Amino acid sequence: MSFIRGSVLLAGLLLSSMGATAQTAKPTDPQIAHIAYTAGVIDINAAQLALKKSKNKDVRAFANDMVRDHKAVNQKALALVKKLNVTPQDNDTSKALVKQANEEHAKLSKLNGAAFDKAYAENEVAYHKTVNGALQDTLIPSATNGELKDLLSTGLKIFEGHQQHAEQLTATLK
User: Fold this and answer.
1) Does residue 116 sit in helix, strand or coil?
2) How far apart are CA 158 and CA 128, in angstroms?
3) Cα–Cα distances in Å, from 150 out to 117, 153, 165?
4) How many of the other CB atoms lie within 10 Å of CB of 59?
């Protein structure tokens, strides 16, 4: 259950960071780009850990989907920032995401077998709920560049599918 608590902490951290940013000023496009890219890298790293640790074919298939999809979106994001000549800007939200993800990664690394599979899947549900909420409520509305907004909207549709897949996966694991 510590992984769910960790995911809830991540959700609270992301939302409070977003809220703090929203209260003082909307995040800028370079900050949004960095937050979105960072969130993708975090999920790729979690999926790569699952591919190393899990023997469950459904968990491995899900993890492979996460790597493929998040790498594809991040490649599009990098191409867009290059095209727009924008440098993604590190910020408190992206730093908090990395810190929390590192803590979760360390916890997941200590688990094996069915315990790992369930914790990974539950973490993916919570993580996608948080990221999808941030995309929908803060990042997309705050983006000023139309192409960035479109990329984030496309990512949201993909990541909503990830959330549903993670929820289905979680339901099958004991």
Assistant:
1) helix
2) 10
3) 33, 5, 23
4) 24
The owner of tokens 């909420």 is 133
pLDDT in tens, 65-108: 999 999 999 999 999 999 988 899 999 988 998 998 999 999 99
Helix ranges restricted to H, the chain: 2-24, 29-53, 57-83, 92-109, 113-134, 140-142, 146-172
Residue 124: closest CA among 71, 154, 165: 165
pLDDT tens digits, residue range 41-54?
999 999 999 999 99
How far is 173 from 168, CA to CA, in rounded Å?
9
Number of domains within the chain: 1
- The span from the CA of 89 to the CA of 95, in Å, is 11
CATH number at residue 168: 1.20.1260.10
Residue 32 covered by a domain: no
Total residue length of the chain: 174
In Å, what is the CA distance from 112 to each residue of 51, 65, 120, 159? 12, 21, 10, 26
Contact predicate 155/147, CB 8 Å? no
